[in-house]
Amino acid sequence: MARPQLPLNALRAFEASARHLSFTRAGLELCVSQAAVSQQIRTLESRLGVTLFRRLPRGLALTDEGAALVPVLMDAFERIGATLDRFADGRYHEVLTVGVVGTFATGWLLPRLPAFTAANPAVDLRILTNNNRVDLAGEGLDFAIRFGDGSWHGVEAVPLLDAPLTPLCAPALAQRLSSPANLAREVLLRSYRVEEWQRWFALAGVPCPAIRGPVFDSSPTIAAAAAMGAGVALLPARLFGHDLVTDRLVRPFAIEVPAGRYWLTRLHSRPETAAMQSFRHWIAAAVRMDD
User: Cα separation of 268 and 257, whole Å?
Assistant: First the structure.
């Protein structure tokens, strides 16, 4: 069945009138007269063969047919407007949504983002942070940067950088640590990965003490607690470089335990857009420069 050829101005007049339930207010919004809006509505009703409004003594009321048409037009005009907004400076801006585990976002990505935005002014980048629990499809993500071993079902995973763990703590607390064995007297802050401290002590050749420190759900929170002197944190030092340079945190021992790496991931079913390709190339080059 052929679709009716409907004039765009008539559809805009109807959508505005439906929102205001007034031809007069719709005309003010569209910068035309009330009579012009009324004529556009009559033209649309004639083309469709239905009545869209009931004309009341004071205002308008949508008919069932009009009420069915309103949400479709509102959604269509909103999507058209959002797309046209991307041409604001004479070029098309593509939205790129990236989910990032918080540690990587604050410790590596954010300091380097100005370089990406300067090189890719047409990419509207949106960063959503998480605690490494992410649903690429459900959250509408183009990419997710996550920590682990790279074995996620249905996902393409490109390795970015390793993140071995080492003790970090406040400078005052570090003065009490002349050897790994001294850690047995301190509060050892924990993440949800309970075996990390055990593996570090095994690598250091020291018996692992009973670990009863608070458990945190993110490395930035653990780092903040350690900087306040609440205990010793086991963290990826390369992602807390600013804290180490400013002596907010210090590294009492050089021993590092392998813990996994960060990956750039996307769904196999997600076609790669130009913006995605630009981000993938940029982050790969930035990681190589960092190594």
Answer: 32
CB 233 within 8 A of CB 250: no
DSSP character for 240? -
Q: Is 136 exposed, middle or buried (0-12, 13-18, 19+ CB in 10 A)?
A: buried
Q: What is the pLDDT of residues 219-271, one digit of tens each?
A: 899 999 999 999 999 999 999 999 999 999 999 999 999 988 999 999 998 88
Report the C-alpha gap between 202 and 134 in whole angstroms. 32
Tokens of 32: 């035309």
Mean pLDDT of 179-203: 92
Residues in a beta bridge with 267: 155
Place 1 in a pLDDT band, splitting at 50, 70 and 90: very low
Residue with tokens 């469709």: 48
Could you tell me the pTM of the whole model?
0.68
Q: How far apart are CA 106 and CA 111, in angstroms?
A: 8
pLDDT digits (tens, 9 = 90+) for 157-169: 999 999 999 999 9
The residue count of the chain comes to 291
In sequence order, the β-bridge partners of residue 97 are 126
User: In which region does residue 232 sit, left (phi positive, over 0), alpha (psi from -120 to 50) or beta (all else)?
Assistant: beta
Angle at 279 between CA 276 and CA 285, to 5 degrees: 140
- Exposed e or buried b per residue across 95-132, where buried means at least 16 C-beta atoms within 10 angstroms of its C-beta: ebbbbbbbbbbbbbbeeeeeebeeebeebebeeebbbb
Q: Is the distance from CB of 106 to CB of 76 less than 8 angstroms?
A: no
pLDDT at 78 over 50: yes
Angstrom distance (rounded) from CA 217 to CA 219: 7
Q: Specify the pairing of strand 165-168 against strand 155-162.
A: unpaired
Question: How many whole angstroms separate alpha carbon 104 and alpha carbon 110?
Answer: 8
What share of the chain has pLDDT > 70, as a percent?
95
